[in-house]
Write a structure and sequence with these properties.
about 210 residues; about 0% strand; 2 helices; mainly alpha; about 95% helix
Length: about 210
């Protein structure tokens, strides 16, 4: 009887010691889980901060591109107006030249027919020829301006294409960053919840240890 009683007491002490060991191990594990949750939360908060900064940067880039497009549109409009003025000047000069050439032809014929008015007519011819030369010089200048306009227009087209590519890339970057933001916000919310659960569980089991 005494031997059986002693064995029962020994087994009871052994089970109590084992239960205490299991609780200690569980508490240690929960503490580790809590710390890991905090580390995950910190990492995703940093990721979210970085994504927000990148989104702000792409917003600034898009605004800058919009301003450049607006300035380019204004320049394109002004260039079109300049070309219209040059075309009008070209047409007017051609009209002047045609008029002067017609007069020149008439007056040269009058020289042959009216010898008495030769001096006056020759003076008029010289004047008309001078006018033609002047208009021809101006016409050459107009042609140069037209060529220059063509080069400027090509440069504008190339610049428009470059801006369009930059804008498309910025929009793609913004879309990707927005998607990352949603993912990171979800992770932050999840790990915040996990931290709270881990802390409550740790506190509950810590109470059991005490």
């Amino acid at each position: 009887m005494k031997t059986a009683l002693v064995l029962t007491l020994i087994m009871g002490v052994s089970l109590a010691a084992q239960a205490k060991t299991n609780v200690d191990e569980k508490i240690a594990q929960l503490k580790e889980n809590k710390e890991a949750s905090k580390d995950n939360l910190k990492q995703y908060e940093e990721n979210l901060k970085t994504v927000n900064a990148n989104i702000n940067e792409t917003d600034r880039a898009l605004k800058s591109l919009a301003k450049q497009k607006q300035a380019l549109a204004a320049q394109t409009s002004q260039t079109a107006k300049s070309k219209q003025s040059v075309d009008q000047a070209k047409t007017q000069l051609e009209t002047y030249m045609k008029t002067e050439q017609t007069k020149l032809d008439v007056e040269q014929k009058q020289i042959e027919e009216l010898k008495k008015t030769l001096a006056t007519l020759e003076s008029n011819v010289a004047k008309r020829q001078a006018n033609i030369a002047e208009y021809q010089a101006k016409q050459a200048k107009v042609q140069t301006e037209l060529a220059s306009w063509g080069e400027r227009n090509q440069s504008i087209i190339e610049l428009e294409q470059a801006l369009k590519q930059k804008e498309d890339q910025a929009k793609a970057d913004q879309k990707e960053l927005s998607e990352k933001k949603v993912t990171y916000e979800g992770e932050v919310a999840k790990w915040r919840k996990q931290v709270r659960v881990s802390e409550r569980t740790y506190e509950n089991f810590s109470g059991l240890k005490d």
